[in-house]
Design a protein that fits this description.
The chain starts with 6 loop residues before the first helix and ends in a 16-residue tail after the last strand. It has four helices and ten strands, in the order H-H-H-E-E-H-E-E-E-E-E-E-E-E. Strand 6 and strand 7 (about 150-155) form a beta hairpin. By secondary structure, it is α+β, with helices and mostly antiparallel strands. Helix 1 (about 5-25) runs antiparallel to helix 2 (about 30-45) and helix 1 packs antiparallel against helix 3. It is about 25% helix and about 25% strand. It has a single domain, classed as Jelly Rolls. The structure holds fe (ii) ion.
């Protein structure tokens, strides 16, 4: 478990590593946009006073080990600010969010992690800001990108939801871990504090 003072540095490096991976994966210009926005936001980000918290579903996070990036998350996990999702009433029993923008001041970028426990579902939802996901671990079934059907997507992929695209995910036998990035709110307006997450 990293020391408290090392956490912001470790989280910044993780987010920069995610942005670099997005630039490699990005066959969608929106992935490159998200990567650039995230890189710029992280570069000068100040640490926020944010406690480490956990939720019950993270008891299985050691299984989310498919990629180097997800293994970084496992290592940092005890020091991160994991919270229940505002879209569920499960008290963190089935899914969790980790708001990187609560731990680092990322300016106009909202970024973090979505974790869904084995066999669990993160409910379909929609919102005005665009959102890019990069999967880090687990084969899961996603609704995304304006589609009505679900698609099986493994780790190390990225996909884009334009404003108001309905999206959700069902984890498979392994937990699902993904990075989310919302950026460029010039036309959408900043989401309220209650919904500043995936
Ligand atoms: Fe979302």
């Amino acid at each position: 478990m990293p020391s408290t003072s090392a956490v912001p540095t470790q989280l910044r490096q993780f987010l920069l590593d995610c942005a670099a991976r997005l630039q490699v994966l990005g066959d969608d210009p929106k992935a490159l946009e998200a990567a650039e926005a995230l890189t710029q936001a992280v570069a000068d980000s100040a640490a926020r006073d944010c406690p480490a918290t956990t939720v019950p579903c993270l008891s299985s996070i050691h299984q989310a080990s498919d990629t180097a990036l997800s293994r970084q998350v496992i290592e940092m996990s005890p020091s991160l600010n994991w919270i229940p999702s505002h879209r569920l009433t499960d008290n963190g029993e089935t899914a969790a969010l980790m708001r990187a923008d609560a731990m680092l001041d990322l300016g106009g970028v909202i970024a973090g992690l979505l974790y869904v426990g084995p066999g669990e579902t993160y409910p379909e939802h929609e919102h005005e800001p665009q959102e890019l996901y990069m999967t880090l671990s687990g084969l899961a079934s996603w609704r995304h990108g304006g589609n009505t059907d679900y698609e099986d997507i493994g780790p190390d992929r990225c996909f884009y939801n334009k404003p108001f695209d309905r999206h959700g995910v069902r984890a498979g036998k392994e937990p699902m871990l993904a990075l989310y990035v919302l950026w460029d709110f010039a036309n959408a307006g900043l989401p309220s504090s209650a919904s500043r997450s995936s």
